[in-house]
Structures are given as C-alpha cells and as structure tokens.
Predict the 3D structure of the following.
Amino acid sequence: MDSFSDIRPYLEDEIVPALNRIAKHPLLTPILSYLFPDKEPEKVRQLISTLKSVDDFQDKVMFFAIRKIILDTVSSLSYAGITKLKDNKKHLYISNHRDILLDSGILQVIFRMNDIQTSEMAVGDNLITDPFIEDIARSNKMIRVDRGKNVRELYNSSMLLSRYIRERISKGESSVWIAQRNGRTKDGVDLTEQGLLKMLEMSGTGDFAKDFEELSLVPISISYEFEPCDLLKTKELYISRRKKYVKSPGEDLNSIISGIMQFKGNIHINFCEPVSAKELKVYSMLEKNEKFKALSEAVDYKIIDSYQLWKNNFIAYDMLFSTSKYSGNYSTSDKNHFVDYLKYKLSDTEGNPKEMEEIFLSIYANPVLSKEKLTAL
C-alpha cells in the first residue's frame, strides 16, 4: 500500500492520531454546534478522541452528522434497487454528481442502514484544502484524486488512482464510489466522461470486457427535488457564457456549506442494474474510442432512465418552452410555489434578469429533456 500512501484513506495505525488531531482542532466546535446541537461539543470531542477505527468514526460520528443534515433539509429520502448490492461482491459505484458532499454522504447512510459495507469515495484534491479537512476526509474512507498540474503529472496520478481502485475492488477489500464526471453537473445534464472510463482502463490488462467486468460497474441515479446550489450554479453558468470561469478562493467550501444548509425537498436514489458481462462483450468488439463511447452511453442510459423527475422539473420545462406539455404533472398551486421560489432565488442577482431566469429554469428542465431523448432513441 506504500505507493498509494498519498491518496488512500488512512490505515489502522494512522486513524487514531488523525482522530486525535480532529478532536483538538478549534474549528470543530462550530461544526459540532450545528451537527450535534443537543450535545456538549466537549463531550463529542472526547468521544472522537477515544475512537479507534474508520468504522467507529463513521458509525458514531459521520452517520449521525449526515442524518442530521437529512432530517433538517430533506422532506423525504427514498431509494430503490439496494438488494442488487447484497451479493457479497465489491463494486465500482458510478453516479451522477449534483452535490459535493451529500451525493456520496447519503449513499453511505443508505449502505449502513442496509448492512452493506460503506464504500471508499473518490474526491478531488481541490476540496482537501488544509490538514484538518484532509484528516476528516481520509478518516472517512475518502480517496484523494490529484488533478495534476501538467500532462505528465495528470498521467501519473490517473494511473495511480486507476491501480488503487482496481486493487481495492478485485481483491474484495472495498467498493468504491466515483462521480461520472470531473466536478458536479452544473446544467442538469448528466453525462459520463469517456476520460473517466479510460482512466479506469489504464490499470487493466487490455482486455476491455474482462477489465470492466472485474470492476463490476453499478450506475447510481441521484435525484434532488431542489437542485443543490442552484443559484450558485446559475451564476457560474451566466459568467461562463462571457468569459472563462475562475473559482474564487474558498468557493468550493462555500458550495459545500450551501449544499448542506439548502432545503432539498425530496431525494430519490436508484441503484441501477450493473453493467453486465454480455453488454461489455458487445462493446469490446468496437473500435477503441467507440468502446468507451458505447460504455459511457450505457451508463448514461441507466442513470437517466431511472432518474426521478419532480414537479419542479416539469414546471421549469413548461415555463422555459412556453408550453403546457407537462401540466398534468403539477397543479396551479405547485407552479405558483415554484415561481415564488425562482423569484426569491434570483432577487439579489446581478446580470440580465431574463437570461438568469432562463439558465435557472434550464437546470431544472434539462433532466426532462434528457428523458425525452431516451424515448426518441
């Protein structure tokens, strides 16, 4: 494991010192005050300092922290297809990506509730901004994904990540979660990057079907009624239409906090059918780039097909295209509530109001468009 020491979660001999550092950190107090309002921060600090393993930290701290966020900001959480994972196998979970923290965090809660081993989670190093955050992340089964500063560094870091994921799954040590693209979906269009699949193949034998069958790909579709950070995403897309968007210092942390605090309404998660050996065999007969294109489209199909559309999606579609095509899926009251929500969100924004509204509506309408494209195939 030495070659993976910079990216892997902490091992047994590293977790106790890390948890002690977390327990002593001054930033922990305001975090605990929000996540555990009925407990004295000092008592939670003492609890963390006595924990001996990653499983202890997840079971006694992180599970309750994510559950607190769900109770405060989610109307209902539903999921389907979980029985597919009770096969004593390790999988590579690949999901659409809407919220920096909660996409993977909620999945871990569902796994725990169903007596399934929690997975390791691939997270970009841009989110691990200081030693305190790194300690929390790597004590919580997070794999650090090094974005790389140049082509050579990117190649080396991609190979290392690919080898690590394959070893963890093929040796039956742990399942791994990874997002279908680099960064969150900003516009509501969920598409798998072929580059991600090519990265996964880097550590394989060159036998396309065998290599991906070994990884046991399970697509997961995550659907939020209210898009996490919808206003922040609208602003970013608005600026991106005019110039290259450059993140400001602390922007990722702000997105994490906004995603945690924002009301999310209903959430539905669907564990899709795994990509089968039969499917992979068909794709393996194609030309090199066509193989990855076909596999990415297969993952996209499973995610989009099982994506749960909400009233907000149908309302936004009809408003965006000035139609009543989906009016049977919502009431006048539903529409009025969504319009009020839209106006509230955009009330203090700078920029062209009509264009900002169009971008905001598109974020919610695009999942409907994606579904329509599936039926047109």
About this structure: Residues 16 and 110 are 26 Å apart (CA to CA). Residues 73-308 form a domain with the Glycerol-3-phosphate (1)-acyltransferase fold (CATH 3.40.1130.10). The chain has a mean pLDDT of 94.
